[in-house]
Specification:
Elements: H1 9-22, E1 25-26, H2 27-34, H3 38-50, E2 54-59, E3 71-75, E4 81-87, E5 91-98, E6 103-110, H4 117-132, E7 139-146, E8 150-151, E9 156-157, H5 170-178, E10 182-186, H6 187-201, E11 208-214, E12 218-224, E13 227-228, H7 258-262, H8 264-273, H9 284-292, H10 296-320, E14 324-328, H11 334-348, H12 359-362, E15 363-365, H13 372-387, H14 390-399
Parallel strand pairs: 4-7, 7-10, 11-14, 14-15
Antiparallel strand pairs: 1-3, 2-3, 4-5, 5-6, 8-9, 11-12, 12-13
Helix pairs in contact: 2-3, 6-13, 8-10, 9-10, 10-11
This protein binds zinc ion.
Length: about 400
Amino acid sequence: MSRLTDLHDLNVSLILQALRSHRKIARFALADLTGLTRTTVSNVTNNLIALGIVAEGEQGEASAQGGRKPVMLELNPQSLGMMGLDLRREKIGGCVVCLDGRMIRHVSVPFPVNSPPHIVWQAIDRVVTELMAGLEVPVMAMGVGAIAPLDLQTGRLIDPSDFTMPNMPLQAALRERYGLPVVIQTGASAAAVGEHFWATQEGTRLRSLAFVIIDHGIGLGMISDDRLWNTNGLGSDVAHTTIDFRGPLCECGRRGCLNVYASGKALMRHCLEKNLVHDAQVDLSALAQRAEAGDEALQAEIIEAGYLLGLGLANIDSLLRPERFVVGSSHEYLSKWYFAGIEQAISELPQYSTNNTHLLERLLLSTHGSDAIAYGAATLQMKAFFEAPLTILNQIASVA
Ligand SMILES: [Zn+2]
């Protein structure tokens, strides 16, 4: 097939976004909705049908002017997919997301904290190989939600603590290894995009969203007026906001940071100090698994950390008042047990007692559980496709 030189990115984007939000729609309705001429709509949709991105379905209702019943168009969800990776200190998660936002595969491979680079790469290879094996959906690009800080200009990890790949040119290395276009972002920012982008598809247009990721630190990703709040790859250091100025000294030099009470690192330290765990190598995933399996002392410890995090979240809420406030973690069950404490703290706060936009009504656990970051990372690429589709459509056309 020839290159799609007669199409304009913006027109194709308008039509794809209309198809995304309406699911089934006739050509004349697409023209009304987008303001494009019927000729342009026909030209674009015919090309999209030829590429397999759009399918013609059943007949719908005739237009107000009467006439024949029109053919309804819809996106073909299996026509392309994006891969998302979630790089943490002790695991790599990954998933593939289709054109309709469905996650069709997800894989997670653990490795010990501070593993040498070749062990981390082995785990990444395994995740990518397992995601791609026998997959019928063509994967067009890869997004990564990584541990901060990142240099987004050069696509590098800077110097994340407890991770042995400082200055790693992650973006270029992944692109070379797997032959896919790659974007990187902090994990919390990726998760925020994943939660926000698909929520708007379901008819609830969210203007603002905050996503808090519980890991060794506490990450915050924010969407404001449909745009990702740009932290320039450094991540929002919400862990280093003070909740008790007389509190214990934090590694950052301040006292009583959220970090010393409520971060995953603090939780692990408290559990070791109280002999709730005996292995200094214990990781957050193992800790959360044990709580989920019924260890009541651990449950209480995580709920306590969650309670203190709840006080921090209320501070963020006073500042930003997001329409939706989401809590998640890459460690399965961890955010669930934190959430119990967060809810308790917020329900006790007096500032919400007379407020009809109570934080509890806007607060929820991540839709995609421990895949939130990987799902969000794939969504970074899916969002880029919907906004400027021609690069990828030309790739599909060139192999068709
Ligand atoms: Zn601090």
